[in-house]
Amino acid sequence: MGGVRGYDEGWRVMGRRTVWWRAVAAVGAALCATTALPEQAAAAGNPDPYAFAEDARTVEGTPATTGSVRLAPGQAYRSSLGEDGKLYYRLELDDSSHAYVSVTAVPKPGTTVASTEGVKVSLQDADNHRCSSETSRFGPTRSPRPVTAWASREIGSDPYMCQGAGTYYVVVERVGTVTSSRGSEGQETEGSQGSPDEGSAWALELGYVLEPPLKQTGSTKAPETWNSASPQGISGDAERRKGGTSFATASPVAQGVWEAPGGIRPGGTLYYKVPVDWGQQLYVTAELGSASSDSDGFVGSALVMSLYNPVRGFADDVTSGYDGSQRSVDLKPLPPVRYTNRFALSNEMSAMRFAGWYYLAVHLGAPVADRFGDGPFGLTLRVRVAGTAAEGPGYLGASEPQGVFEVTDEDWETAERGPESGAEVDEGSGYSGGGESGGTAGSGGSQASGSTQGLAAHDTSLKLVAVGGIGTGSVLVLGLALWTVMARRRAG
User: Fold this and answer.
1) Is residue 479 within a helix (H) or strand (E), and if so which, with residue range?
2) Helices in 84-177 by DSSP H: which ranges?
3) Which one-letter DSSP state was computed for residue 255?
4) Hey, which of 60, 379, 434, 464 has its CA 20 to 30 A from 193?
């Protein structure tokens, strides 16, 4: 499976030999279509699927290192991972650049997942030495949401392993998989053996970035002191800014108060991105509005906000419960962006090592719908970028793709004003400056556009509205006219 697919439900009316039954079938079909419109429209209002980068290439991972496809820096890729799967992809690295690989796993909507399930990403050298690894799990929300993990090869981090030029392997595997089968009443029961099917596969989006070495080697110690106090919250009227449905379509925002038009639905994830330059600190608060229904109850893990750095490396997250009343959550204070943060023992601090676009993924757990309805629920972000931008560390050469670790005047303007008037959010990978793939990465190299899924859903809803405008009354008039014609023919 190359990605998450949408399946439209359809039906056919059996043909008959007489004009009379064809006419009746046509009227019946029109009536059924009109009656079904509200249900179909409601389905079209479900959370949008993950929008893969438009320029992503589709590749297949291999179950062993031999024959694995080579990935090129700066290029986005699509792949898929089956149940209990473990796949390999290949990198060719020099002996001076830092390499970062991110993998976003996207289960099919409606899939049942356990809190312990997730994706693990490792980077290994040709001698099976592990350079680094990370595991990302769905957690207590138990929602089939996109989860992202990263791995890296860093020069100077280890005097013996993963330092030389040569072949390296990205290993992507599912962890914590709970095998299940249908019980006698159609319920899922854990612990039994079930055969994997197409629906159990997860779509994958892979990204690969190279960071050049420095012109001059500096300190290899992380800052010991920094301002860890929480600043006063951002206030004022909110501006409306629609969230994206993936990293590639993340909506740019700057310092300020931002409201998601249309809110967020249970099971949905909205993506935003904030430019943060060298020396600056990022503070974010997410507010979930109160429920409009009178339902009561409590969902222990309802709202999850996660922060990722410019190479999609995990930095921090925060979770909140929900009882139908408004709730707010804050990312804990993180240090100013500095090159030397990478030497910190804390993973959160180490992740704040780059200037560039930082990504926010805000997810509302699917169980919220069971207690408080399908929503949507109001979502507001309060974003503060503190500090004055400083000079960068002085790279020897450019990143691949170019511009990943810098913030330009155009970036600031885009974050302030948002996408150009009347234009869609850019759905490119952000890795458009990719290098040569050596011919191997294109083995499955048809370009794939996840954005067309969202556009198709939008187009479908518009068609439903247009057809609905005909009205049931018009169909009944048509039926009456056909009935009159048939009666006259029979009388003749």
Assistant:
1) helix 472-491
2) none
3) S
4) 60
| Phi and psi at residue 284, to the nearest 5° | -140, 135
d(CA 353, CA 384): 18
b/e per residue 382-395 (b: at least 16 CB within 10 A): bbbbeeebeebbee
Rounded alpha-carbon distances, angstroms, from residue 135 to 149, 174, 477: 6, 9, 61
- Is residue 245 pLDDT above 60, yes or no? yes
Q: How far is CA 460 from CA 81, 444, 453, 466, 474, in A?
A: 29, 29, 10, 10, 22
Q: Comparing C-alpha atoms, which of 52, 97, 179 is closest to residue 404?
A: 97
Q: Is the peptide bond before 336 cis (omega within 30 degrees of 0)?
A: no
What stretches of 282-441 show up as alpha helix (H) in DSSP? Answer: 347-351, 368-372, 409-417
Count of CA atoms in the C-beta half-sphere (13 A) of 321: 5
Query: What is the tens place of the pLDDT at every residue in 301-321?
Result: 999 999 999 999 999 999 999
Q: How far is CA 250 from CA 44, 52, 424, in A?
A: 21, 11, 11
Q: How far apart are the first and last CA of the chain?
A: 59
The C-alpha atoms of residue 252 and residue 270 are separated, in whole angstroms, by: 12
**What is the separation of C-alpha 355 from the centre of its chain, rounded to a whole number of angstroms?**
21
Lookup result for tokens 């449905």: 245
**Summary count for the chain: helices (H), strands (E):** 6, 22
Q: How far apart are CA 291 and CA 235, in angstroms?
A: 22
Nearest to 76 by CA among 211, 272, 252, 209: 209
Long-range contacts of 156-160 (CB under 8 A, 24+ apart): 156/220, 158/131
Q: How big is the chain by its Cα radius of gyration, in Å? A: 26
Work out the pLDDT band at 232, boundaries 50, 70, 90: confident
The residue count for the chain = 492
Q: Can you say whether the dihedral through the CA atoms of 470, 471, 475, 481 is positive or negative?
A: negative
Nearest to 279 by CA among 455, 406, 120: 406
Query: What is the per-residue pLDDT across 32-70, written as a single tens digit (0 to 9) for each?
Result: 333 333 333 333 346 779 999 999 999 999 999 999 999
Q: What distance in Å separates the CA atoms of residue 208 and residue 124, rounded to the nearest whole number?
A: 15
Name the token pair of 463.
């068609």
Rounded-to-integer distance, Cα 80 and Cα 105, Å:
8
pTM, two decimal places: 0.77
CB distance 142 to 367 below 8 Å: yes
Residue with tokens 């009944």: 476
